[in-house]
From TrEMBL:
Entry's Gene Ontology molecular function annotations: kynurenine-oxoglutarate transaminase activity; pyridoxal phosphate binding
Organism: Roseicella aerolata
Source superkingdom: Bacteria
Domain Aminotransferase class I/classII large residue range list: 26-377
Family under the similarity heading: Belongs to the class-I pyridoxal-phosphate-dependent aminotransferase family.
Keywords associated with the record: Aminotransferase, Pyridoxal phosphate, Transferase
Cofactor(s) named in the record: pyridoxal 5'-phosphate
This protein's name: Aminotransferase
Cited NCBIfam families: PRK08912.1 (NF006488)
């Protein structure tokens, strides 16, 4: 057996969702909406399914979707990307992350990662024989420690992989932080893998800025989006990578060896989605902002320390004010078993045991009645 894989635990999202099911808990753990995505997107996929569009699509994605990804890049960010040479469609952002890492990393190369980090990053970097260099944001403000980040880059750095808007912190990287990262990338002549799956889920006027739009970054960034988040269809697993034509052939070869292609009918649905009008995208974030506010207010009333969320599906809370005696894993287990509400322990997003262990992450991509019921259960429990 591969020792790196046997040392990798089952993902926390699967563990907590199973525990929620076992205890009849409301699942505010794993980040998936309890409402469906846009009807026209689903209809377009269903029509393609019935239309006999069911055989292998082109390796890099169906033309309609590559064109839609390109148009979306131009509309929202002014990024010009050739749909025939600079877009690769993958089976979810999860595959996209692996494909981008495979495209640039050789064994022994260093890859900078920012903690807390999404749970697939570290195992994949290690599987490729690359060396992770971890830099930690410190709560509650999750500021970028600039000196530490600079020190993590060196002659062996090949790439940085990071996520904005960020899971689980809800942080949106500022223009100044991105400029700092861009300088390091240029100085060390390396690449960035930009996990931007929550690009449209920002609140309070926060705007997502792709690192790719900064000077000198167009050729160095692999920008990743996900239909799961942008269309509330997390089970579809359709992701898309935008990158320079010099990188795309290697990204495509990685995709060729991972999955080769992605369900063509779903791709056609996502193409319709990316062409939706601006109101759709504005409504997506304003709808989620209202859910965030509802959950944040209720959690604060119960006594949680509620950290600000600028983007994503998630609120991070400090549960110490509740007087709970135990770490985040114990807290999330007790909350599931006793209060019948499930959250995710934030230590799952850290590589080592010295992580802060007093935070629990709640997902707010849920119906209002579900949020209210979860809050009522927790109110009765504390
Ligand atoms: N990156 C981050 C930060 C995520 O939260 C997720 C969760 N869905 C993914 C990547 C994976 O996205 P997908 O479902 O499209 O594979
Ligand atoms: N991205 C989702 C989350 O953070 C979960 C995805 C998964 O279950 N792997 O909750």
């Amino acid at each position: 057996q591969n020792s790196l894989l046997s040392a990798t635990g089952t993902t926390i999202f699967t563990i907590m969702s199973a525990l929620a099911l076992e205890h009849g808990a409301i699942n505010l753990g794993q980040g998936f909406p309890d409402y469906d995505g846009p009807e026209d997107v689903i209809e377009a996929a269903a029509a393609a399914l019935k239309d006999g569009r069911n055989q292998y699509p082109p390796l890099t994605g169906v033309p309609e979707l590559r064109q839609a990804v390109s148009a979306h890049n131009r509309r929202f960010y002014g990024i010009e990307a050739d749909p025939n040479a600079e877009v690769v469609v993958t089976s979810g952002a999860t595959e996209a992350i692996t494909a981008c890492l495979m495209a640039v990393l050789n064994p022994g190369d260093e890859c900078v990662l920012i903690e807390p980090l999404y749970d697939t990053y570290l195992p994949v970097v290690k599987l490729l024989g690359a060396v992770p260099k971890l830099v930690r944001l410190s709560p509650p403000k999750w500021e970028l420690p600039r000196a530490e980040l600079a020190a993590a880059f060196g002659p062996k750095t090949k790439a940085i992989l990071f996520n904005t808007p960020m899971n689980p912190t809800g942080k949106v990287f500022t223009a100044a932080e991105l400029a700092f990262i861009a300088d390091l990338i240029a100085k060390h002549d390396c690449y960035a893998i930009c996990d931007e799956v929550y690009e449209h889920l920002t609140f309070d006027g926060w705007k997502h800025i792709p690192l790719m739009t900064l000077p000198g970054m167009r050729e160095r960034c692999m920008r990743i989006g996900s239909a799961g988040k942008t269309f509330s269809l997390t089970g579809w697993k359709v992701g898309y990578i935008t990158c320079d034509r010099s990188l795309a052939p290697n990204v495509a070869k990685a995709h060729q060896n991972l999955t080769f292609t992605t369900a063509p009918n779903l791709q056609r649905g996502v193409a319709v989605g990316l062409m939706k009008d601006d109101d759709y995208f504005a409504g997506l974030s304003s709808g989620l902002q209202a859910r965030r506010d509802r959950l944040a207010k209720g959690l604060a009333e119960i006594g949680f320390g509620v950290l600000p969320t600028q983007g994503s599906y998630f609120i991070t809370t400090d549960f110490r004010p509740l007087g709970f005696n135990g770490d985040d894993v114990a807290f999330c287990r007790a909350l599931t078993e006793e209060a019948k509400v499930t959250a995710i322990p934030v230590t799952a997003f850290y590589a080592s045991a010295d992580a802060p262990s007093h935070y629990a992450r709640f997902a707010f991509c849920k119906g209002e009645a579900v949020i209210d019921e979860a809050l009522a259960r927790m109110r009765n429990w504390v």
